[in-house]
Every structure is written in C-alpha cells, then in structure tokens.
Write a structure and sequence with these properties.
heterodimer, A: 6-stranded mixed beta sheet, 12 strands, 28% strand, B: ABC transporter involved in vitamin B12 uptake, BtuC, 14 helices, 75% helix
Amino acid sequence: MLKVENVSVSYGARLALNNVSLELPAGSILGLIGPNGAGKTTLLRAICGALPLQTGQLRVDGADLRCLSSMERARLMAVVPQANHLPPAFTAWETVLLGRTPYINWLGQVTSRDEQAARAAMERTHTIDLAQRRIGELSGGEQQRLLLARALAQGAPILLMDEPTTHLDLQYQYSLLDQVKKLAHEDHLAVLVALHDLNLVERYADRVAVLVGGELMALGQPAEVLTAPLLSHVYSMPLSVIHTRPGGPSIILPAG
Amino acid sequence: MKPSARPFVYSLIILAATMLLSISVGSVFIPPAVLANLFFSHISGAAPQTASTQTFATILFELRLPRTILVAMTGAALAGSGASYQGLFRNPLADPYLIGVASGAGLGAVIAMGIHWPYTNAGLLAIPIAAFAGALLTVLVVYELAKVGKTVPTTNLILAGVAISSFASALTSYLMINATGEVRRALVWLLGGASMSGWQPVLAVLPYVVIGLGIQMAMGHALNVLQFGDEQAQQLGLPVEWVRRVVLVTASLTTAAAVSFSGIIGFIGLIVPHLVRLVWGGDYRRLMPLAIISGASLLLLADVLARVVMAPEEIPVGIITAMVGAPFFLWVLRQAKQQAYW
C-alpha cells in the first residue's frame, strides 16, 4: 500500500530522519516505537506531507505522493493527531463531518453521502451518542475517539496515528486500539501507529518498527523485535521481556 | 420556517428596519407616509407635486439613500473581513486593524487625498484603489516579514502586523499635519465620518465590497477546517497556503473599500463576528453572511445616532461605535451562558 523509500528529513543542520525505508501493507498494523526524539513524529509528519523530504520517496500503490494535491492525498491517507488544542465550540458531528473535506465542494455543501459516511464512522467508534455535544465538553478519551471517527469519515485506505493513547485511561487505551485492530483486519486499512507503551505494541502491532536517532534500527514481527537485548539497547536501560505462557502475550518490564 | 433559515430572516428584518430608520432620520425627519409616497412616485416616474416634497425627494435620493447604502456596505465590509481575519488567525482579537491592513489602507487613502485626487470625478475612484494598494502592500510586507521558511506562524504575523500598523499610522499622522488645509477634513474622515456624499462613493466601493465579500462567504467551510490548525487542515485535504492567500487578499480588499470613504471605524470588525457567534454559533458558513448583514445593521444604527445626538452637528461615527459598542459588547459577553462559544 504505502512505501517509504530512503527517506531523510532534516531540521536545519540536524538530520532528524536518516535513510528510512519501510512498507505499510493493507490489512495490518505497523507499530512505531523508539525513545523520545527518535523521529517517530517526524516520520509521521513527513509521510503526511507536513515536512519536506530531503531525500527519498513516498509511494502509494506506485504513485509518488508528492505529485498529489492535498485533497488527493487526504483521500489516500487520514491522520489521527493527538487530541490537543481542539476548537471547543465545534460539535462532535460538525467535527466528524470535516473529515469529508476532500469530497466537499468550495461552498461547503454537505451531501447525504457525506452525512452517511460521517454517521457510519461515528457508529464504528461508538461516538454517535456524542453527536450534538461540543468538543469542549468531552473528555480526552472521547475527543480521541472523535478524531478517529473524523479520520474514518475521510474514507482513506491508510491511517496514521501519533500516540493516540497518550491521555487515555487504561480501558480507553485498549478499546481504542481494539477498534483500530478491527479496522486493519476487517476493513483492510493500512495502519501506522506511533506508541509509547511497549505492552500495547506487543499486543496490537502485526509488525514493529524501531527508530533510534532518526535511523530504522529494527523492523519485524513483535516476537522478533521486542526482545530484552534489543529493547535494553534502544532505551538505554535494562528491560526484561516476560512470557506469560508459550504463544501467549508477553510483558515488558524494567529488569531487576 | 426552517430552523436554519431563522437567523437569516431575523437579521434581514433588522437590516431593513435600520435602513428605514437611516433614510428617515436626520436634520430633517421624513415621515414614513412621505417616504412611501416618494418611493412610489419615483418608481412610477411621476413629478413631485409640491415644493416641500421636491425638497424631501432631493434629501432622500441625493443624500440619505446613498449615505445609507455606503454606511451599510462599510459595516458589512468591516464585519465580514473581521470574521475572516478571526477565522484565518484563529485569534478572537483579530480584526482589520490587527495586521495593519486598515492602517495601510488609511495611509494609501491619505496619500491619494494629499495629492488632491478626490476633487475630480476620476480621482474619487482612485481613493479605493490607493487604499487597496496600501492595504495589499501592507499585507505583503507583513507576510514577508513574518515568514519562516515556507510557513507563516500566526504569532509572527500578528507581531509584524502590529509593528507595521504603528508605522503606517505614524506616517498618516505626519502627512495629515503637513497638509494644513486638509487637517480637519482628514481628521473627520479618519475618525470615521462619511464626509463625502452622493452616489459616486457608493459606486466606487461597490465592486470591491461585492466581489471581496462574495469570495469570503464562499470560504466558510475552509475557515471551519482551519480552526483545527494548519497541520490538521492540510491533512484533511485543505490547500492551506492557498486558502490563506485568498482570504488575506479579499479581506484586505473589503477593508480597503470600507476605509477609503468612511475612515477608520473601530470595533465593528471586532465585535460583530463575536455577537453573531454568541447568538447563532461559530460555523463560518453561517457566520460569514450573518456577520456581513449584522455589520451593516449595527453601523447604520451607529450612524443614525451620530446624526441625532448632537444635531445639527454630526459626530464621527467611529466615536459612537466605540462608546456604545464597547459597553454593549461587554453586556452581551456577560449574558453568554454558553461556555465555549469561541
């Protein structure tokens, strides 16, 4: 689906991403991990076009992303940002409808198709009951689900998420990622999600990419990548990976 | 009546009422019956029957009506561009003055007046052009100064705007002090007194206001998307830089049109969009047209007050908008029960 080929990005003289290549196939979740400042957000921003590439290419089904207008790009990939600084006066329904921007004409006329797509996205994310509430009245978890609904309303085959669980309580972290998992496995979306919590990555990601200092250090199945030696090296502290039972989930903890 | 149509119907009724008030009230009161009669005979082409109706007709068609339309357009232009700037900069304090547009337009207009353009017919048309040139030049300078790489951070834009605005105002004051004969006239103009009468100023600003406000109204959806920030707007498929340029240029165009014949009128561009938001909500697709209609009504009302409070002397309308507008706005703000209206 999405191919990132030899992408480098720099902020002034500092190289923030160095020659990163990865592939995002449809129907799976790629978890992106790495310590703070490793370039996770930079990679996501480069992919969605917010940062210029110094070198490299971004391709979706062979087409160069840079040749697309922002509208065409938005039909291909939707971004779930962190729920910070949202305009409080918008209602949930208005917010989700904005996901239809790549299909709405300049006068902002919303068709019944747009409304159907928005309603379906809200039902999917269990936010339909919030429709008439204002963003300012919603909790962090509700706002985050709303942004997922807005991204789904965009109808794009690629979903990029930047730390979507950061401000969420435990049960919302799992319910949000359960929804994302269904979207990948049942609706065949290609999902790239940056996460802090290694246990969530272990549980939900089909593959894991590890960024350190702007370079891709490892890429593979969670069982191959999430090992004690590699993680201890990446996070510069001793970590243990405890297997609960053979073939079952594992828990990542500080060693000792 | 469909609920979505209600705000428009109410606002248009208020506009009609204030226009009626504006054409009948002044140093000479024209009673409603006479008004109706005058319009009827004007349409049917009948000659006025008496000398007094002849006088009323002159006052109505040569003075009151063009002034009413000019004031309405000015209010509409200021409120419309105020709403656009607030949406564009996501800043509730934004108005045509914040980024220096109005000061730049004022400087352009004062230069045009200084070289005696306005005293010929062709020169009259040149004032809005000079004001627009001043406004656009200001925007371009501010935009270039605020630019970091390819983007223009809002904070930079506002800071550069405030600085350029002070500079342009200082130049304007300097020019006015030097142009001794014009000082009083220019001062009255600068405080927002419609100092020119007749149909010519109306026709001179009409195209700017209609085209500028028309395009801004079409940007309602884009302004809605922009409220989530430039980056999210881009991700939602909005060509952010393009939208920004279109709104900046058209809002400057309408600001310049408003400034060129009515001077610097404070407060309308700031408070009208907030009033509309408080009462009818912040959706820019509705906010833009409603602010435009209400801006016209509010400035008309202020202009009527300016004519009557010290009659037969006229007060510059800018004084009224600030003196009455500020307390009124504060009262509305206190009444607002809805929390996050912005």
